[in-house]
User: What shape does this take?
Amino acid sequence: MITTEFVIYDKVNQDAHIATALAFVNQNLQTEVVSDVTFLGATPPLTNYGSCYFLAPQNIPESDIAQLPLACTYMILWRTSVDNVCWGGGNYGLAINGRPTCTIPYNVGYWGTLQPEWGHNLLWADTVIIHELHHNVENFLYDILGYPIAMSRSEHTYGSTVPAHGSHVRLWVHGPIRMASMGIPTDQP
Assistant: This one.
């Protein structure tokens, strides 16, 4: 079992998206990903990357981190006050409490729209959470448990289009992660 703590700034309920993402992931893994939610106050100031903004782990106050339980991974969902966020989600490796950490802005324009590219009836919100959860599971298996699988660090090596993202998620959930969860090395072609 892999525990994921969803940390939600500005206390906006994301239960439906979290449930959908977990159901999608859990139906395709040999292990189970379970979650809990911690609601925190206002989103901290964002990092200015020049032409865009994003919440990086170094933006998160120590007082907020102190409120979090120890989990296998952390998914930080936050409200943006700017239009020019850098990414749909960002993975920061072993950032909070030495665990895989992702951050995701949730009040962006596409959040509630249908994302048909994956061949599933999922909203963008669900696919972004699945995508970043994928990174966190990879990081946990590789960096914490030492499985050699995972430094594929994902679909970005398969292409730069959205369909490549979906194709790789299907490959990910049916291939290397399942093999790794059974103890089968997957670093061979």
About this structure: The first strand starts at residue 2 and ends at 9. The helical segments are 15-26, 62-65, 124-144, 162-174, 176-181.
